Structures are given as C-alpha cells and as structure tokens.
C-alpha cells in the first residue's frame, strides 16, 4: 500500500454529490458550488455544510440564515465547475450562466430551475461556524423535477476530478432495522 497525505481523506470519503448553494442578500441572488456537505440526522432533517469567509455566499448565509441547496446533474457539469471558479462579489452568476431562478416557498434565496432537486433550508445551528465554518442547516421543503431525464450526479474527488453516478443497488428489503425512518 502507498501512503497519501491525511489531508486527502475527503478524496476517499466524499459525502455526496456536488451541490449548488443559492443565497439572496440585499436583493441580490448568488450561487456557489459546494462539495463539503453531509447529512447529520433524519428528523428534523439536518445538513452540515462547510462554507467559509473566503466564499462570497458566507456573508449572505450569516446575514439571512437561509439558502437553497440545489442538486445539479451531469448535463450541468461544466457550468457547475465554472460557477465554482468565479466569485459572486464581481459576477451575477445567474445571468452569466443562464440559470433559471424560481421563487422558493419559505426562503428568499431562489430555487434553481435547471437542477434535479432543490432543498429550501434555514440555519438551525451556527455555533460551529466561527471554529469550523460549519453551518447546520434544516431542510424545510424539497422540490424535485420528476420530468427530468438526466439524473446522474457528480461527486468531487479532488484535484478537478469527479466520479459520476452509474447504476443503483436496491437492498431496501434487507434493511429491516431502519424501516421506521421516513
């Protein structure tokens, strides 16, 4: 076996698909690409997201306490990468990338109509933000585009490489211990 730096643990344990985080602050919507997130619990549904002061969205999330987590699919791969390499402090990313903002129900941040799913979130706990840049978000509403044909998601592996979802294994009938969960 070959040792790699411990700092690259995320390349092996990447928690989920690349997502887009939409915010709105002072009437200006913004979107960022995010790979560092995780599910924390089922009820209430809590999601942890690492968003630091180096991200333009950080100030909006701190100020408003709300955002939308949008889940893009493979057809948006280049756009997702390009969103992540420019800053919303100088660029209107919705305009530059032709994204379709949609009104959310419970938050002012926009849904992204181009994505497979959108999760409206509110900050449930900000106590770890100053130390770890970790926002604990509570999912309030979820919207899915059931008519969307492309459903493959991307997962960041570091260094600009991504894996793409393929087939699905369904062992639901064997998971008897967890049937009580929604």
Describe the structure concisely for a colleague.
By secondary structure, the protein is of the alpha+beta class.
Overall description:
The protein is α+β, with helices and mostly antiparallel strands and 182 residues long. The protein has 5 helices and 11 strands, in the order αββββαβααβββαβββ. Strand 10 and strand 11 (161-164) form a beta hairpin. The chain is globular. The termini are far apart.
* Unreliable stretches covering 5 or more consecutive residues: none
Largest sheet: 7 strands, antiparallel
Overall 3D geometry?
A: globular
- Helix proportion of residues, in percent? 10-25%
Computed structural class: alpha+beta
Tell me the β content: 25-35%
Succession of helices and strands: HEEEEHEHHEEEHEEE
Count the DSSP helices. Answer: 5
The N- and C-terminal alpha carbons lie at a distance of: 40 Å
For the biggest β-sheet, the strand order reads 2-1-5-8-9-4-3
Rg over CA atoms: 17 Å
Total beta-strand segments: 11
| Overall pLDDT | 91
